[in-house]
Write a structure and sequence with these properties.
Helices cover 8% and strands 49% of the residues. 24% of the residues are buried. It has a five-stranded mixed sheet with strand order 1-2-8-3-4, covered by helices on one side. The N and C termini lie far apart (36 Å). The chain has one domain. A hairpin with a 2-residue loop joins strand 6 and strand 7. It is mainly beta and 105 residues long. It contains one helix and nine strands, in the order E-E-E-E-E-E-E-H-E-E.
């Protein structure tokens, strides 16, 4: 099994191999999206959108260029929505402040 690394950034990356799915853990719900349905990602240092065939995952935060880098290699295995107080807490380095998932219609 691949070993995973996770920091205070809010995302988890596999060190070996590629994950089959992306787990998006929100406070009230968990989504498991297969990387085989991934279409593209776009964004800035403050917001990244991941377009899957069935869903759009929007991530907000700071320093998200690092997240785009590991998404391009499909090495992210998990995104975790931060606590509500994360917006008001000073954090150094890349981190998430919000994660949302919406269905494609």
């Amino acid at each position: 099994m691949a070993s995973d690394t996770e920091s205070d950034s809010g995302w988890q990356v596999v060190e070996k191999g590629r994950p089959v799915t992306l787990v998006v853990q929100l406070r009230q719900k968990v989504y498991i999206l297969p990387w085989s349905l991934f279409l593209y990602a776009e964004g800035t240092a403050e917001e990244v959108k991941l377009q899957f065939h069935t869903h759009v995952v929007t991530v907000q935060g700071a320093g998200l260029g690092a997240l785009l880098s590991v998404i391009s290699a499909q090495l992210v295995c998990a995104l975790r929505e931060p606590d509500r107080t994360a917006k008001f807490t000073a954090v150094a380095g890349p981190h998430l402040t919000a994660v949302t998932v919406s269905e494609n219609k």
